[in-house]
Design goal:
Length: 331
């Protein structure tokens, strides 16, 4: 009978041709190891001696129940997905007869509804107030703050993609500038850069050279840096954007848990409102499926219906219909 540790090694070997992201592999390894360890204890064997055929629905259900005691719903869902993929591999390799994960319940997947800014004109308000110096800081840097906000608002870049942009990522001739973004799984895409963003970046880079006494910047230099001229990290970007929201007075218009991703959702939602197709959104946002872009199109349709439904004329009609039946009004 095949040992779990051996099957896991073969599973990761099978994933290599697909070139999954390092983070994905690390997550799979952690989830398989932790829950595999719980399952081994439940089977009363050392983890190194756990056999794949011992991973029944009953054992895995109990292991996930214990795992769920001190893990959030998102972690449980991620672990369930990892184990489901592993057990599907085990079935394909004829290590087990069927996938036992059908017997393991899991949290409902979170809503994929886009989370742009709540309220019209919020992005404009945010940029105008930050440009006017609304964010209070020990070492204020308006030009850098504006680029950190505007870049995802006009390119739809994820935070990790934006932090990975270097000066060499920009290219193209005048009037046809583009920026190369590296997304999930190492996939790259080229996104158009219009004049206003180009000028904003130029002003920021000039301020950066003046601030740090530099005569120039290499193409390998990161686009975003902190106030010590070190590459801006994820935590720093999160903090910066949260501070901008607060000082601009728009923090109450940001959906909980979205933060930097709100800027990406704002980009996509407004494009959908202006007629961008699901296919165009897929290409611009770097989605692997057109279905994700469709969420923005559908969400926009709902928002338009809600906006149309707020017309004062509906209130008048409601009043008329409640005071006199439709058939009486037409007679």
């Amino acid at each position: 009978m095949t040992l779990f540790v051996d099957a896991k090694a073969e599973f990761f070997l099978s994933l290599r041709p697909a070139k999954p992201a390092a983070g994905t592999l690390a997550g799979y390894d952690s989830d398989l190891r932790i829950i595999g360890g719980i399952a081994a204890r439940l089977c009363d064997v050392p983890p190194a001696e756990l056999r794949v055929d011992r991973l029944s629905g009953r054992v895995l259900r109990a292991a996930f129940a214990e795992f769920a005691d001190d893990h959030a719903a998102a972690s449980i869902l991620r672990a369930w997905s990892a184990w489901n993929r592993f057990m599907n591999f085990a079935v394909a390799e004829e290590l087990v007869e069927g996938n036992p994960m059908a017997a393991v319940p899991h949290p409902k997947a979170p809503s994929k509804a886009p989370k742009p800014f709540q309220g019209d004109g919020t992005a404009r308000t945010l940029l105008e107030r930050i440009a006017a110096g609304a964010r209070e800081a020990r070492d204020p840097w308006v030009e850098r703050d504006l680029v950190a906000l505007a870049f995802p608002l006009v390119t739809g870049a994820r935070s990790a993609e934006m932090l990975g942009v270097t000066l060499g990522s920009f290219g193209g001739s005048p009037g046809d500038r583009r920026v190369r973004l590296t997304g999930k799984g190492g996939k790259t895409r080229s996104v158009p850069v219009e004049g206003p963003l180009e000028r904003l970046v130029d002003a920021y880079l000039l301020s950066r050279m003046e601030r740090f006494g530099l005569s120039g910047l290499p193409l390998s230099a990161p686009l975003l840096v902190d106030t010590k001229n070190q590459p801006l990290r994820r935590g720093g970007l999160q903090y910066l954007v949260a501070q901008c929201y607060r000082y601009a007075g728009v923090h109450d218009r940001v959906s909980r848990g979205a933060l930097v991703h709100t800027l990406r959702h704002e980009f996509a939602t407004r494009l959908a409102e202006n007629g961008a197709s699901a296919h165009e959104l897929k290409e611009l946002l770097g989605h692997s499926s057109i279905a994700t872009g469709q969420h923005y199109v559908e969400s926009t349709a709902r928002e338009l219906r809600m906006a149309a439904g707020s017309s004062p004329a509906y209130g008048v009609l409601e009043s008329l219909l409640s005071s006199s039946p439709p058939d009486a009004a037409s007679s």
